[in-house]
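thread: overnight batch results

M.L. [08:02]
morning all. the overnight job finished for the chain we discussed friday. pasting input first so we're all looking at the same thing
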Amino acid sequence: MRLREISLHRVDLPLTTPYRLSYRTFESFEPLLVEVRDEAGAVGWGEQHISPGSSAETREGGWAFAREMAEQLLGMEAEEAKRRVLARSKESKVAATALVTAIEMLEGAERLVNKTERRFRLLTAFNASERGAIAEEVEQRLEQGFRTFKIKVGKDLAGDIERLVWIQECVAGRATLRIDANRAYSREAGCCFAAAIDPAGVELFEQPCAAEDWQANAAVAIVSRVPLMLDEPICTLTDIDRAAAIDGVGLCKVKLKRFGSLAGLEQAIRYLQAKGLGAVLGDGLGAEINCWMEARVADGLIDNAGEFNGFVKIRPEARLLAEPLPFKAGEIILPAGWWPEMDREKLRTRCLETHRFAPPSVGATA
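M.L. [08:03]
and the structure it wrote out:
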């Protein structure tokens, strides 16, 4: 199987409501879409979102890397193309993952195929901050079928503690909570918050301190009243080894965009489990292609609520698939044999920029 054409698309997908993290508020997602075709005309898609502020990787750098690699990969066999990209993936891990997973889809990777109906529970983001609004949103999320809520903290220590208490009172045991600081706390503030958590109904406390500050996160883990989960530092198997050696760390977050390929992500999950750590999977900034792929990797490997929920944050009219990723009552529900198909007109209207690479006989633009 040789790669005949590669098209790169930068798209803008507006959200239904702003998505607030400690380091950035998103009004829309702007993922990189990779489209690959073989000589028979079969197509594969890869999609990844570089989140400004999440790491040193930039959208401009990822776009440049994808363009350079796409030009080199034309005419290659699929396996060789994947090896070529993965060999340079440290230059732009997220963009490399978009390229490799597009090829994996083109190949019809077994991990993506579901022969029977499959269901995947999702958590939901939680936004309200005032007592009255919290009570209203809790009931709304429960009515929508969600049973795991993600609570963002990190901007106001005292306010965060008070808000968590209000949420727990309103939830009253009807859902579990994941608390995520997105690296926003200092060592001292993280320890203070972690020691103040009432563990009732709280599943974990995620990434309190800076990704590179392993010592600060370890200090928080020791005093935390719930298991600590590391997120941004977990990009390699070596990182998993390091996490497993920290008392109080019970889980690691893994995302497709950090492990380069479907195969790499599955390997990371199995490695985590072999080390005695729990795995939580999902990129809350992903759109439909990425969320579908992460759900398929989770199948049979992970039994907790997935965080591959970015697609539900996107306005329905801005989703790009001809048949939207099936979602109902807090679950992705994939009928047997479900496979994504791009709506070309929607893609055209949402594109910010497109570059197509093909042999001269086919025509190319760059």
